[in-house]
Design a protein that fits this description.
The protein is of the alpha/beta class and about 270 residues long. It has a single domain, classed as TIM Barrel (Alpha-Beta Barrel). The chain contains nine helices and 14 strands. The strands form four sheets. Strands 1-2-5-6-9-10-11-12 form an eight-stranded parallel beta barrel, surrounded by eight helices. A two-stranded antiparallel sheet has the order 3-4. A two-stranded antiparallel sheet has the order 7-8. A hairpin with a 2-residue loop joins strand 13 and strand 14. Helix 1 runs parallel beside helix 2 and helix 1 packs parallel to helix 8. It is globular, with a radius of gyration of 17 Å. It starts with 5 loop residues before the first strand and ends with a helix.
Length: about 270
Amino acid sequence: MKALIITAAIVGAETMKSDNPNLPYSPEEIAIEATKCREAGASMVHVHGRLANGQPTQDRETFAKILTEVRNRSDILVQFSTGGAVGMSVQERIEAIDLKPDMATLTTGSVNFGDECFLNTFPMIVQIAEGLKKHAIRPEIEVFDSAMIGTALKLQKMGLLEGPLHFDFVMGMPGGIAGSEAALTFLVSQIPEDATWSVAGLGRFEFPLAKLAIERGGHVRVGLEDNIYISKGVLAAGSWELVEKISEFSRSLKREISTPEQTRNLLKIQ
């Protein structure tokens, strides 16, 4: 199998310090956590922006600080979220992509998110895809349900996405696809043969799905954005501890952990 890419989703837009006090808010805190995740085995960090009070933000200044702080400390690849938080406009969500991170996410459909809807109409998706293409940023296609794969393939036919595509299956969220082995098998069966994929299991689904992905040649995303516990009822000391657990499991199966340079080559990142 190819080396395992571990992406650390260290902050998100929903989890707060009141949920887990080890969640980073400031650009410096995010960079320090990213460095710890790199040392634990992650080759990419997935970031959202936060204000000092924890409120989510996609403003360019915050992302510029995050990018600078992370790159001053580590060689870990930086992936920006273009999802932001529920209710943000497309303009807000892509404000910082001209900073040219190594990757950025592209969610190819809408999904219920708690009592709200994470809205991604087709014109919105096209606008984000056009922005990523303009700045030559490699997209990670975030899939919350199987129909989103079809939309990504449509974007590829339109010339807005270039293959081989890379998918991240976000599983186990109420309103999205189930966090089951059968659901993962189905998603993998729907993507092109030359595509790469990772899985982000939410909450209790994080580790079981991560193990399946490692065994099947996929890749893994873990972090406090998706799951705040290292074991049942025990808060993780940080995203780095979740990364460390995945690294240990991968090594137990004799699967190599990808470095940032290997990840850049595997995912065709410019």
